[in-house]
Amino acid sequence: MRFFRRKKTYDQTLPHQSGLRIMSADEENPYEPIDNYVDAKSDELAYLVMHGDDGGQIYLTSPMRFVSCNEESLKKLLAEIDSLRWNDPRTAMLYYERSKPGNGVPGGMGGGIMLDRPWVHDDLKNKYELIVDYLAGKVKTIL
Fold first, then answer.
1. How many domains does the chain have?
2. pLDDT tens for residues 22-32?
3. Model pTM?
4. Residue 31, Cβ density class (10 Å: 0-12 exposed, 13-18 middle, ≥19 buried)
5. Structural domain range at position 88
6. What confidence score (pLDDT) does residue 108 get?
7. Could you tell me if residue 72 is left (phi over 0), alpha (psi between -120 and 50 degrees) or otherwise beta?
8. What's the CA angle centered on 31, arms 52 and 38, to 5 degrees?
9. What percent of the chain has pLDDT over 90?
């Protein structure tokens, strides 16, 4: 597992890593990417992060313990959220990282924050309960 503290460039990222998070990582807010869903589910410090506009808007963060749906469902959720905001699937991404409550997630439109529960951007507050239910596997769509 890589642990980024110094600024990197986008060309040093792997498909499951956020270039923006790598570039913004520092001593106060390190970035520890997790390679895949299975590893994230087994790590008690794992968080899910979804963003659009290449990190221009952080859509949501959630401790993985709140995620009961599978990875394909998470990809569908990302597509649905992105269709409501930027509507550009090429710039939408989900990834996993080790973090702790209180850590920030740099990004445009105010960035995001890691909490001890799911967090959504203010633009998605009206969908919060649906998103939490979706993550828990209780609903199949937020639209």
1. 1
2. 666 677 777 88
3. 0.86
4. buried
5. 10-135
6. 86
7. alpha
8. 75
9. 73
